[in-house]
C-alpha cells in the first residue's frame, strides 16, 4: 500500500465517521446528557463493529451478506430495539445538573454497556454495511491486501473513527454546558431521547 493510498483512506474514514447517521446521532445524544467521557465505550463499540466489517470486506463481505442476510436483520432489529429502549429511558429520567458533577461512577459503570450499545448501533446500520461493501472495494482492492496491509488499514480505520466520533462528542458536550437549569436539562433529555427513538425506528424500518 502506498503512502498516498493510506493517507486518502485515513481521510475518507475520518469523513465517514462524522457523516450524520444513527451512530453520530447516538453519540450526540449521549454527549449532550452525560458528557464526552461517557461516549468512550460507545465509540469503542462502534470501532469494533466497523473493524469487523472491514475485515469481512477483505474476505468477501458481499458473499457473507448474501448468505447471512437473516443474521444481519436480527442484529439490525436488536440495535433498533435497544436504541428505542434507551431513548424511552432517557425521556423518563430525571437528570439534574448536580448529577453530572458527580457522574464519574456512572461513567465507569456504563462503559461496557456502552461498548455493547455502540457495537449494535454500528453493526445494524445500513450505511456502514453499504460503505464497506460498495465504497471500499472501489477505493482499494481489499482482496489483494497483504496481512500487514490489513493490519495497517485496521489501525488507521480505528484511529480515524476514534478521532472523528470523539470530536463530535466533545463538540456536543461543550454545547451542553450552556444548559444551566433543571428544566433545560429535562428538555435536553427529552430531545436526546426522541432522537434515539427516531434513529432506532429508522433502523427498524429501513433495511
Automatic annotation (TrEMBL):
Recall the taxonomic lineage recorded for the source organism.
Bacteria, Pseudomonadati, Pseudomonadota, Gammaproteobacteria, Vibrionales
Any one annotated GO CC term: plasma membrane
Task: State the superkingdom.
Answer: Bacteria
TM helices/strands, residue ranges: 6-28, 40-62, 74-91, 111-135, 155-175, 187-205
Q: What's one GO MF term for it? A: amino acid transmembrane transporter activity
Membrane-topology annotation of the record: Multi-pass membrane protein
**InterPro entries from the entry?**
LeuE-type
Methyltransferase: present as a keyword of the record? no
Question: Sorted alphabetically, which keywords does the UniProt record give?
Answer: Cell membrane, Membrane, Transmembrane, Transmembrane helix
Q: What is this protein called?
A: Putative threonine efflux protein
Q: Where in the cell is the protein located?
A: Cell membrane
Annotated source species: Vibrio caribbeanicus ATCC BAA-2122
